[in-house]
Amino acid sequence: MYKDTITTLVDAGEHKVTAIRENMIGFLIGAAMAGAYIGFGNIIMYSVTAHVDAAWVRLVSGAVFSAALTIVIFAGSELFTGTAMYMPMAVLSGRSTIPQLLGVWTATWFGNLVGAVVLALLFKGAGGGAIFGDGREHFMSAVAAKLSAPSSELFFRGLLCNWLVCLAIWMCNRTDDASAKIFLIFWPITIFVAAGFEHSVANMFTFATALLMDSANSVPISGVFRNLIWVTLGNLAGGAVFVACGYWLQEHGGGHEAHAKLPGDADRRSTAAE
């Protein structure tokens, strides 16, 4: 039922391991690009909603932020939250190891962070637009809410967020129609943003921008790290447990012969033996 989609995602996970081994610099550049692309989504979201009526802020935020994942998927880049789904599937298939999974997660996370920070610096150099101007109060109130949220809430907000983000990626891999992919990205991303869930890479740009403002003394580094740690863990749980393992178990039922069921595995084993 889901065999072809799982195969595609397993291939993607295996490719990331190969990319890190053979071209680490190129992989990190791709990860930095993804961090910047998500940051562009933050820029449009906070700029557009700076003066939107409170009743519409969440809905508008979600609708415009969906542009970020659309760019990531169609332009091509390495997004950490997507690897939360790809890599567990590659491990479950026997085509990746736990150390390789951790290596991909680590490289992608830090690459995304670099891209988010670089974009924040460039954005400040460009004047900062509405976020540094008349939308500053709106932006900083969002930052304050992220910093004050309890750790347990941050974890579960991160989990719910990446369940939806990975669902968007999963659905995009079930169709070849570009127009359909845009539509399929829109709804899960709109839901997670409108509901107030937390995305670790989006938060990287948000906090980097807040720290560059004159009011940066109101953004404690300890609070930034606390948010990123708990949201990151939640993002990993959402993608790995609720999407990767969920669909893997639907297809394979947790059977011991699961590794042999993916199309092309026999050919790969034959090639490896040669």
Rounded to the nearest angstrom, the radius of gyration is 19 Å
Label the structural class.
Answer: mainly alpha
Count every beta strand, where a strand is a DSSP E run of 2 or more residues: 0
Number of separate helices: 12
Give the overall shape, derived from the CA principal axes. globular
How much helix, percentage-wise, in residues?
A: over 70%
Largest sheet at a glance? Answer: none
**Which residues form runs of ≥5 with pLDDT under 50?**
256-261, 263-274
Describe the secondary structure blueprint for this structure.
Blueprint: H1 3-22, H2 24-48, H3 57-75, H4 80-92, H5 98-125, H6 129-132, H7 136-148, H8 151-172, H9 178-194, H10 200-212, H11 221-252, H12 265-273
Helix pairs in contact: 1-2, 1-4, 2-3, 2-5, 2-10, 3-9, 4-5, 4-8, 4-11, 5-10, 8-9, 8-11, 10-11
Report on the structure:
This protein has 274 residues and is mostly helical. The protein contains twelve helices and no strands. The longest helix has 32 residues, at 221-252. The two termini are 32 Å apart. Mean pLDDT is 92; it is low at 256-261 and 263-274.
